[in-house]
Fold this sequence. Notes:
Radius of gyration: 21 Å
Number of helices: 9
Shape: elongated
Helix content: 40-55%
Structural class: alpha/beta
Amino acid sequence: MAAALKLHAAQMRFPLRRETRTDRAAFVLGDSNRAAAEALDAWPDASAPVLAIVGPAGAGKSHLGAVWAERTGAASLKGAEAALVDLPALEARPVFLDDADQADDETLFHLINLAHASGGALLLASREPPALWETPLPDLRSRLDAMRVVRVEAPDDAVLGAVLRRLFAERAITPGDDLIDYLLRRIERSVPAARDVVERLDQESGARPINRLLARDILDRDAATGELFG
Length: 230
């Protein structure tokens, strides 16, 4: 009877999921992102009204930018969509521009100029540093080349392991240490890859426990079909 009840409880497990947090307390600090996090905690300042954070996809740039925007009351823009914003309305206000390398030259030039006005500041996030962005505008080129840059690296084991545990917790799942260790060896080193694998484990578990064996079955199957996480 006890075994039957246990099996029934496993079959009736509902996918409980808490809302994903993007506040500072939810950000996992480690060697891979410490320099950028500390730079943003102490910024902006009058000597450097423009700052770029750069690094690979899934390293936490958008999360850091969202935390900074919340703290400073900054307007949040994204890539080419920034061209649709009324730029004069952003005067004397901090701005966070994600996917900054996708913004058009004219918008980017005006945002940089606005950042130098009283009360302004501009945080840019992109994969490549501004010095590598292409532009035919000499004035913009000089500003991009002189811009202060801090780098976020791909998550290390400490960061990615903590991210995996947080993502499992959002679904009311407590993973074993062996599962976390196994996933760290198998998945791409990015937050999106961690999110994808946790979601797959939750969706495909059914009556099976969420453990290393289930993860191996899913990852081996994806490897065989070429559908690797990330």
